[in-house]
Design goal:
- The chain is α/β, with parallel strands linked by helices and 194 residues long.
- The chain is built from four helices and nine strands.
- The strands form two sheets. Strands 2, 5, 6, 7, 8 and 9 form a six-stranded mixed beta sheet that branches. It has a three-stranded mixed beta sheet with strand order 1-4-3, with no helix packed on it.
- β7 and β8 form a beta hairpin.
- α1 packs across α4.
Length: 194
């Protein structure tokens, strides 16, 4: 059994600030229960199938969401357990974990090396000032792979690393969609003639 932790260094390694960030600041809303969500399970691969990994998925999702929106919006992002001061933000985003699997993929390398792989799905809500859902979409990362290795004394840690990357990459896609769907569309338009 191995217990992984949220690691700011792993998240920093995955970050890619966008070249032209969107204007404004984003509020990221997650509940205390979601922040405390812990995944515990076996890999889907035969390799390592007798092992169990515990990952603080809730903490990783919260931190990666704040990081991804900070990298996409000039004003950054702020985390909160509830919607507040909504007028200060261009968007209020609430991510919810749906599923997570991981594997030590040895088949890809004809048994000579192992490729740590993680797959995460997150349901994302954009809320209005009253906390009501305005928009909802499910996002799936697909198989996100870390560097392959021959020998590793802490293979579970490679899964934790690639999990940070998978969640950040997914939330960077969400940040791009939110900026396109909501922020870019909030340009004032002339009132219609009657």
């Amino acid at each position: 059994a191995h217990t992984g932790t949220y690691n700011a260094g792993y998240l920093a390694a995955a970050r890619r600030p966008v070249a032209a960030p969107c204007e404004g600041r984003v509020l990221v809303v997650t509940t205390e229960a979601e922040d405390a969500y812990i995944y515990k399970g076996h890999p889907t691969s035969f390799t390592g199938s007798a092992t169990t990994l515990t990952v603080p998925l809730g903490a990783i999702i919260k931190e990666a969401t704040v990081a991804a929106f900070s990298d996409a919006f000039r004003g950054g992002a702020e985390a909160s357990a509830s919607v507040h001061d909504a007028e200060r933000f261009v968007a209020v985003v609430s991510p919810h974990p749906v599923s997570f699997t991981y594997e030590y993929n040895q088949l890809k390398n004809v048994g000579f090396a192992i490729t740590p792989t993680a797959v995460v799905s997150i349901d994302v809500h954009v809320l209005d000032a009253g906390g009501v859902i305005r928009w909802q979409k499910a996002y799936a990362s697909g198989a996100v792979e870390g560097p392959s290795y021959m020998l590793n004394t802490a293979p579970q840690e490679e899964i934790v690393k690639v999990t940070h990357k998978a969640v950040y990459d997914l939330m960077a896609k969400v940040a791009s969609d939110v900026s396109a769907q909501f922020v870019a569309s909030q340009v004032p338009t002339a009132p219609e003639a009657r």
